[in-house]
Write a structure and sequence with these properties.
Mean pLDDT: 84
Pfam families: Hydrolase_4 (PF12146)
GO cellular component, one term: membrane
GO molecular function: lipase activity
Largest sheet: 9 strands, mixed
Protein name: Serine aminopeptidase S33 domain-containing protein
Oligomer: single chain
Number of domains: 2
CATH superfamily of the largest domain: Alpha/Beta hydrolase fold, catalytic domain
Region (Disordered): 1-26
Shape: globular
């Protein structure tokens, strides 16, 4: 089943994005009623459609915004539990700077197909590759990524070191599992992923952590496409990102702008600092907002954030950066596992006593196996 619509819409002057929550339709009505409005109008072409993925039967909801004049283009990759409709202000800002904008709902989120919150890293990389097939290879390309979307894009770039773009913008990037979950929970997660990867858990995501703007929080609360549920498989993805990205950060060389709020309680700004210090990019910039929450593009930090993004993108456009797309991309991440001497001894011990386990009750066998597995994982560096 295919679906596609094309329409035109009006954008106003940069004043359009000063508020943290103004929609195009309401602003258009305001302009018609206010004869003293002095903003400069532009027309953008909007195309909405479903595109096929490399997985049979799964389609992604895709939007393309094309301004009258195109200087560059950007792909916006959203984070966990949300969808592309949460980036209206950001989209308008890019359009006013003559950027062609590509948005999509990730697999299992928003209007896209797939089981809710159950995609693997390989599938998320595959979907990003599908969106890359939609862009014009002759126009400078930027990627804006938020939270877990930043982990997806950075891991994709690390797995494909020959892939080159004009620049990457990371907002509130999530590189590590929050410390409050602890090591025992992480070990339990790895075990459950092998038994029941489809099991959905409530993350109890506190919407007040997203923004200081109460109107935006109410909007998130009533949005039917915002979901706090996460599958065991998806939670394992976050753990694998932690095991892969920071240990390999020194291999990252793409021009990057890192934005993070110091008051972010979902993803720590210290992880972004750690990543920034390790990467080898010749063009790298980091901006920490003292009062910033998780969604700074929907908060009072937006005017300053918008200026930083616009100036950095213009600087990168003027740079002589050769982009490079690949015919085939590597997908997924490679997490190295190390066996310590203690782990090896425990494995040998388990093999030696396996015959003696036959005389024990089933419940005792299961308890011993779980205990041994916990010991094995405790002595495996993460």
């Amino acid at each position: 089943m295919s679906f596609q619509t094309t329409e035109e819409r009006l954008m106003d002057s940069p004043k359009r994005t000063e508020s943290t929550d103004i929609h195009s339709d309401s602003q258009k009505v305001k302009k018609e009623l206010n004869s003293f409005f002095l903003g400069v109008q532009q027309t953008s072409k909007v195309t909405r459609k479903y595109i096929d993925t490399k997985t049979h039967g799964i389609q992604l909801y895709y939007q393309e915004f094309t301004p009258q004049f195109i200087d560059a283009q950007v792909i916006i990759v959203h984070g966990f539990g949300e969808h592309s409709g949460n980036y209206n202000q950001l989209t308008d800002s890019f359009l006013l700077n003559n950027f062609k904008v590509h948005l999509y709902d990730q697999r299992g989120f928003g209007f896209s197909g797939g089981i809710r919150s159950k995609s693997t890293i390989e599938e998320m990389h595959m979907d990003l590759e599908t969106i890359l097939d939609q862009v014009d290879k002759s126009i400078p390309l930027f990627i804006f990524s938020h939270a877990l979307g930043a982990a997806i894009v950075i891991s994709f770039c690390l797995m494909n070191p020959q892939f080159e773009i004009q620049g990457l913008i990371c907002s509130s990037a999530q590189f590590r599992v929050p410390p409050r979950y602890g090591r025992i929970k992480m070990i339990t997660l790895q075990m459950m992923a092998k038994v029941c990867p489809d099991l959905q858990l409530n993350t109890y995501h506190n919407l007040s952590f997203a923004s200081k703007n109460n109107h935006h929080i109410r909007k998130l609360a009533i949005d039917p496409l915002i979901s706090p549920f996460m599958s065991i498989q998806f939670a394992l993805n976050v753990l694998q990102f932690q095991q892969y990205i920071l240990p390999n950060a020194s291999q990252f060389k793409i021009p990057i702008l890192i934005l993070h709020g110091k008051q972010d309680k979902i993803s720590s700004h210290l992880d972004s600092v750690d990543f920034y210090m390790q990467i080898q990019s010749q063009e790298k910039t980091m901006k920490i907002f003292e009062q910033g929450f998780h969604e700074m593009h929907n908060d009072s930090e937006w005017p300053k954030m918008k200026t930083v993004i616009s100036q950095w993108c213009q600087k990168m456009i003027n740079k002589d950066i050769k982009m490079n797309y690949l015919k085939e991309y590597n997908r997924g991440v490679i997490v190295q596992q190390y066996r310590s001497k203690i782990r090896l001894l425990i494995s040998i011990l388990l093999i030696v006593i396996r015959r003696k386990l036959s005389c024990l009750k089933a419940s005792t066998k299961i308890s011993l196996i779980i205990f041994m597995e916990l010991l094995l994982r405790l002595f495996t560096p993460q």
